[in-house]
């Protein structure tokens, strides 16, 4: 599994090769960056870019009273911000339909960001539009979804369950709404892996490594989890390469999201 992930990330890095003085650079076996020509001192300057690598569906139907989710994956350098807007520009920032904005990290970072918009209530209109917007380095990419709102069939199972629905209406399952799918970052830097969540009660967030063991300062003082759920890794090392899983759990359910971290050693 690890070898397949490494091959996948190396292939992605090759496609998006950074530029040094206008030339492509090679990733050596020791994971350092070297210029294709030795006539000048290597200086890395990866071009800024952003693109949506997995857009939400073009259209989807929501039965009134039901919950739907829209997922959008954005790739970029520097690490892109991701935002959802409703209609002609209103930010989708109510309750469980959060903006899922993350701030850009260092200008040399490259990441794939997954953002999920949870819609557990439908509009009174017959249709609504939600747009995923990815931004990085002054560039923008977007993709929109049209949600058609329809009435539920009468005298169906949903109607029979209305008493139970009212009983549990204030409880909502735990869901991870934003995380990195993959992150490239330089060794020696401080890495922050986001894990934004929604749910009622508010989910508790923990992290585990590839072996399924809990991650925290008790295991390694370089690692700690912020109250908001992010995993912080100080002084990034080559040995830190691998998968990190965010676990969001509340009284209703549990949700997980995995991030693959790839340290890069600059010259």
From TrEMBL:
<feature type="signal peptide">
    <location>
        <begin position="1"/>
        <end position="22"/>
    </location>
</feature>
<feature type="region of interest" description="Disordered">
    <location>
        <begin position="31"/>
        <end position="55"/>
    </location>
</feature>
<dbReference type="InterPro" id="IPR003598">
    <property type="entry name" value="Ig_sub2"/>
</dbReference>
<feature type="domain" description="Ig-like">
    <location>
        <begin position="47"/>
        <end position="148"/>
    </location>
</feature>
<dbReference type="Pfam" id="PF07679">
    <property type="entry name" value="I-set"/>
</dbReference>
<dbReference type="InterPro" id="IPR051170">
    <property type="entry name" value="Neural/epithelial_adhesion"/>
</dbReference>
<feature type="domain" description="Ig-like">
    <location>
        <begin position="173"/>
        <end position="262"/>
    </location>
</feature>
<dbReference type="InterPro" id="IPR003599">
    <property type="entry name" value="Ig_sub"/>
</dbReference>
<keyword id="KW-0393">Immunoglobulin domain</keyword>
<keyword id="KW-0677">Repeat</keyword>
<keyword id="KW-0732">Signal</keyword>
<dbReference type="InterPro" id="IPR013783">
    <property type="entry name" value="Ig-like_fold"/>
</dbReference>
<dbReference type="InterPro" id="IPR007110">
    <property type="entry name" value="Ig-like_dom"/>
</dbReference>
<dbReference type="InterPro" id="IPR036179">
    <property type="entry name" value="Ig-like_dom_sf"/>
</dbReference>
<keyword id="KW-1015">Disulfide bond</keyword>
<dbReference type="InterPro" id="IPR013098">
    <property type="entry name" value="Ig_I-set"/>
</dbReference>
<protein>
    <recommendedName>
        <fullName>Ig-like domain-containing protein</fullName>
    </recommendedName>
</protein>
<dbReference type="Pfam" id="PF13927">
    <property type="entry name" value="Ig_3"/>
</dbReference>
